[in-house]
Amino acid sequence: MAVSASYFLKSAQLNVAEGNWGRLWLLLALFGTIIACTRVRNSMPELFLWTPLLFYTLSIAHGGVPIFLPVWWPFSHYNVRYGLELLPAFAIFAPLAVLSVIKHVQSKNLQIITTVAFFAFVLLSYGSIWGDPICLQEARANSRTRIALETELAAYLKALPQDSTLLMYLGDHVGALQGAGIPLRRVINEGNHRVWKQPADPEGLWERALASPNHYADFVIAFEGDPVSKQVNKTKVVSLAMIHVFGQSQATIYRAQHED
Length: 260
Prior knowledge:
By secondary structure, the chain is α/β, with parallel strands linked by helices.
């Protein structure tokens, strides 16, 4: 739990600012939280802003949700954006800490200096990540091969008949449909079933299309390891093309074998 909490707090810190600027934000937020707990009445609503810390600590430690940071092992970018959940807490409690200091300073000149110093700190900390925030770094690092795969797949999908219906899992590569200009109303996907039917909905459109793709779709797009590749009835489809991109799962386009 301690390691999980430290990784989540570090991701929050890196989302606010780099290096010592981020550490100062975290220290100010923690100091402001202590002040809220000890001196401010009716502070419980504000304390709920720290709820993501508990949620993600439990998720990382016991829910199989990893966070990879470029400054800590394994020195990569993955789910760093989760730290954004603490931005509201920083926005409330860091100024509260500074306000408490200003109120306890007797000299007007020192109050003005403290106020100006805080605004300068805000500007400098934001300047440290201006143009290249860590969430943008994560998007760039994790999308290179994904974009390459989706671009190549989109080129194939554009060549399909415009009135055709597709069967595809949208959880990973919906960008290929966007690139091909295919509206989602033409795609049977994992959202086409009754969610209140648990654990499965045999009568749902998604499940029926997987079992008999030739009755519901004209083409099937499967990515190695996704629900379509694992569950679709492959005796009812014929492979048309396979797309290989380094670092991504193989994509296969099938044509449904319609009965005469």
